[in-house]
Write a structure and sequence with these properties.
Number of helices of chain A: 5
CATH superfamily of chain B: Phosphoribosylformylglycinamidine synthase subunit PurS
Distance between the termini of chain B: 7 Å
Strand content of chain A: 25-35%
CATH architecture of chain A: 3-Layer(aba) Sandwich
CATH class of chain B: Alpha Beta
Radius of gyration of chain A: 16 Å
Radius of gyration of chain B: 16 Å
Structural class of chain B: alpha+beta
Oligomer: heterodimer
Number of helices of chain B: 2
Strand content of chain B: 25-35%
Structural class of chain A: alpha/beta
CATH superfamily of chain A: Class I glutamine amidotransferase (GATase) domain
Number of strands of chain B: 3
Order of helices and strands of chain B: EHEHE
Distance between the termini of chain A: 10 Å
Number of domains of chain A: 1
CATH architecture of chain B: 2-Layer Sandwich
CATH topology of chain B: Mth169, Chain: A
Shape of chain B: elongated
Chain lengths: ~220, ~80
């Protein structure tokens, strides 16, 4: 698997994400936000967590208008798989690749702890390594993870099985406890929790590793 | 020419920061506050002198960057 990890000023989970991908056997390139082309032959673009551009204006808003973002949108438009984690999820909704918005947590506090998630669909490149409704423990670390969309969009996401993960306990006020969603073609995943922080026994959970292993397996099979 | 953009959460979108401000005002004894909504103000200095063109430019800026129209509404004033 050839993967690119996009790096913005203020990204801070980029190396963790690269390590998680390498752990699954990926050849990883780091791509700076000013690049106007992605490496050739990519199987995956991953947008890491952090505070791109200091969360100025809105989380992910400036990053979503950076030169590389236009290339990521083009890559996704060709059916390329894209994974956005935490700030990466915020960037994906700001680009319009995923619907809805991520607002300030309902309790107004930054939440940094391990959250229990429920896997809502195994029908994607990202979630095929889990069992339906499996509980997994994945850390969250965010201030603006409160997923909101209009009722019609939420109904559509649920009806089309595009809610990838929900929180077992709704910790941030997200509509319908949504923690992660898929695009219409199921090849773009945005999620607030950090699977790359649950890949090594020393992390306290290895429940995230199945996502990277499933991605690598899907790319080998392709 | 100067322009001022006011960005607010749309009606019906929950505003936890506004609610927290309202709560704090209540704590300070301001009992007459029904609701509080928090937004942001962005001021721009433009080279454009023609008001209609300036307004069109700033509207495009709002649509493309300054507001997230999924959850926010905006108002453009020339000042």
């Amino acid at each position: 698997m050839r993967a690119a990890v996009i790096v913005f000023p203020g990204s801070n989970c980029d190396r963790d994400l690269a390590e998680a991908l390498r752990g699954a056997g990926a050849d990883v390139r780091m791509v700076w936000h000013k690049e106007t082309a992605l490496p050739q032959g990519l199987d995956l673009v991953a947008i890491p967590g952090g505070f791109s551009f200091g969360d100025y204006l809105r989380c992910g808003a400036i990053a979503a208008r950076s030169p590389v973002a236009a290339e990521v949108v083009r890559f996704a438009g060709r059916g390329g798989p894209v994974l956005g984690i935490c700030n990466g999820f915020q960037v994906l909704v700001e680009t319009g690749l995923l619907p809805g918005a991520l607002m300030r947590n309902a309790g107004l506090k930054f939440i940094c702890r391990t959250a229990r998630l429920s896997v809502q669909t195994t029908d994607s490149l990202f979630t095929s390594g889990y069992k339906p409704l499996q509980d997994i423990d994945i850390p969250v670390a965010h201030h603006d993870g409160n997923y909101q969309a209009d009722e019609a969009t939420l109904d559509r996401l649920e009806g089309e099985g595009r809610v990838a993960f929900t929180y077992a306990e709704n910790l941030n006020g997200s509509a319908r406890s949504i923690a992660g969603i898929l695009s219409e073609n199921r090849r773009v995943l945005g999620m607030m929790p950090h699977p790359e922080r649950a890949c090594d026994p020393a992390h306290g959970s290895t429940d995230g590793a199945a996502m990277f292993a499933a991605l690598a397996g899907a790319m080998l099979a392709a | 020419m100067k322009a001022r953009v006011t960005v607010m959460l749309k009606q019906g979108v929950l505003d936890p920061q506004g609610a927290a401000i309202g709560h704090a005002l209540g704590t300070l004894g301001f009992e007459g506050v029904e609701t509080v909504r928090q937004g942001k103000v962005i001021e721009l200095e433009l080279r454009e002198d023609d008001p209609a063109k300036a307004e069109a430019q700033v509207t495009e800026m709002c649509e493309k960057l300054l507001a997230n129209t999924v959850i926010e509404s905006y108002r453009v004033e020339l000042i």
